[in-house]
Amino acid sequence: MLFSASGKMSGDGDMASVMGFSGFGKKARTFDLDAIFEQTRRTAIERSQHVLGRFTSTVRCLQFYYFLPRKQESESSSDSDSDSASDSDSELIGPPLPPQFTAKDDDDDNECLRLPRRPGHADSTASSDEDEEEENPVKKIPDTHEITLQHGTKTVSALGLDPSGARLVTGGYDYDVRFWDFAGMDQALQAFRSLQPCECHQIKSLQYSMTGDVILVVSGNAQAKVLDRDGFNVMECIKGDQYIVDMANTKGHTAMLNSGCWHPKIKEEFMTCSNDGTVRTWDLNSEKKHKSVFKPRSFQGKKVIPTCCTYSRDGKLIAAGCQDGTIQIWDRNLSVHTKFHCRQAHIPGSDTSCLSFSYDGMTLASRGGDDTLKMWDIRNFRKPVNVATGLTNYFAMTDCCFSPDDKLLVTGTSVKKDEGNGKLVFFDRASFQRGYEIEVTNASVIRCLWHPKLNQIMVGTGNGLAKVYYDPVKSHRGAKLCVVKSQRKEKQAETLTQDYIITPHALPMFREARQRSTRKQLEKDRLDPKKSHKPEPPVSGPGRGGRVAAHGGTLSSFIVKNIALDKTDDSNPREAILRHAKEASDNPYWVAPAYTFTVKEEQKKRNFLLLFFKRNLINKIVED
Q: Looking at the record, which segments are called Disordered (predicted)?
């Protein structure tokens, strides 16, 4: 049966009145969709206008900040034109200016509006000092403050800093690798982890990958290792067959490693060089075999040992410095012939300790074992652009690196024990003049890193120190995070004591046992022969009760000691040897009869042989 809407409503009302209540609950809420859409459209228009106004005001503020005066309208000759111009100037086009940018007096209307000056730039002389600082790169060196990290007592031969600058890893001649977390350290400057990943092999090189999740460890053995951020093993390269002559046919290195580094663009690829005369690239996902092999060769085509290797900034070139003084550069995809080759880069026989590409990729810096630092233009690789001499180098891993702005070149110097201080030397890239020096410590300066994000310099020395130089204004995070934290106090061991609660009105079943004094219990234990048994003193004399005296606790030890005791006096060895000589001569029973028999037998054999040879000789003469 069908009902109309009005009939249904009246029926509901009649039913509600019959059942004794007013209605069947709240009515359903209705929505006007057209009104909602209209309101949303208006809100969007208002927000767009607001954002556009903020953008316009920002553009004006930037113009004021860089001191760009607004164009003033030309004054007209007629009064009407001037009045109209003044009226147009009084009208503000666009959003209103913030209060701090409005002109205070009417006389300043013709002057350009400016933002409040930045701190330290109050006048024109300050801005000129800033320009001078930008022109002089030496003033950008962050060396006003330093912290010292105690790695150990031996040489710090490896430094690695992750791309974000949160963690530093150090390695040395003491086989240890230490992990330092700047955000987790306090003023005590303690490493949060120390391990020996390569057992008893010196650490040659440490480097984080481009993502910072794994670390390449190059040590004195033939197998490089890859660790994660917490020091756990991820991969170990395979060792090659050392009985194969052609090193390209082996799966890995067969001799001690010298250096290694990660690819700057491919996070799974890294490179190592070894004393077997090869430079090999590896894939992190394939540890059973190398990826490619590069074999440096001398001018005569003989094998030479690469002492250092590196990638170019774009990862397309591979450079290696060799023991014969050459620097050889290959295309990463062509491992047969070199793309650039300088045969007299350094003195033959000296280990080239470091190669470093500039950030623009056009310049290569080489630190030689011949106490020189050279800068090369790879577009003209025949001779160096600049050369610096007199930089003592006693280590095969002395670093050189470029500053983040590519205007300075940094390296360290070596010193002998108690003969001066090791220095960090800065060279201007354009003029190659020694612009600045930092005396680090009374030991050699070996490793150096200049992190581009932190703007801090890390230095590894020959006396087991790792120093971090920073500037509170120019540097960011890093060492600034740990120097502001106070040293944590050592937590005392907490003793747990059970409190005794006295409840005199408690029921007997809930009442705790009364604490009694332990004095009476100790007196009872003293009287107990088992609990207070006195240790037996050592036996003196021959022994009693089955115990042997001072010769031991068992009979066998007593017998052994008595057998070992020899009462004879051998103070005169000649008399001891000739002690039985007279008896042997008087009664030659053992020696003389046996010797006499032996002599007679030997004499008979000789006589027989002599007679035999004589007969043969006579017969031969007669026949002739």
A: 73-145, 512-547
